[in-house]
Amino acid sequence: MGTDMTFAEVAEGVRATIAAYTQALDDGRTDHVVATFLPDGVVDIQGMGTHRGHEALREAYTRWKPRRPQRHLVLNTLVTDWNDHEAHAVSDVIFILLGDGGWTIQMVGRYLDVLHHVDGVWRFQQRAATFVTA
After folding, report:
1. 7-132: CATH class
2. Using an 8 Å Cβ cutoff, are 12 and 94 in contact?
3. N or C: which end of the chain has fewer CB within 10 A?
């Protein structure tokens, strides 16, 4: 697989995009969330539907703006396949919400991502979220 990028460069770029998405999501900055996706990017979140393209993504993430402090703790990110133009990654996610009694875990799940490297930045082509239920 011919590549000019090192694994470390790809992995750091992928993690930076995941972090930018997560912080914008938790802050309610919808336009910044949408900017982490390619124009035809898609998100498929278990129980919340599939949304394709910037307009549909903007509508969905506007509906999902936080009403109280929240955090998506994304960890164990593993880039599983990559080249200069595309990377696949899997990450675990824990969603916590601040309530009257403090922070509580709301759900635990996993992201499966496909990102493309365009104009020097990694963007989501596809992001799928599944959740573990107890």
Report:
1. alpha beta
2. no
3. C
Q: How confident is the model at residue 1 (pLDDT cuts 50, 70, 90)?
A: very low
CB 108 within 8 A of CB 132: yes
CB 76 within 8 A of CB 91: yes
**Angstrom distance (rounded) from CA 22 to CA 86:** 20
Q: Is 27 helix (H, G, I), strand (E, B) or coil?
A: helix
What average pLDDT does the segment 100-115 reach? 97
pTM: 0.94
- When the pLDDT of each residue in the chain is averaged and rounded to a whole number, the result is 96
| Measured distance CA(105)–CA(99) in Å, rounded | 10
pLDDT at residue 28, rounded to an integer? 97
Cβ-contact 96, 85 below 8 angstroms? no
- CA 92, CA 83: separation in Å to the nearest integer? 22
Domain ranges (residues) in the chain: 7-132
**Element (DSSP H or E) covering residue 14:** helix 7-27
pLDDT surpassing 70 at residue 32: yes
Tokens standing for residue 20: 């930018």
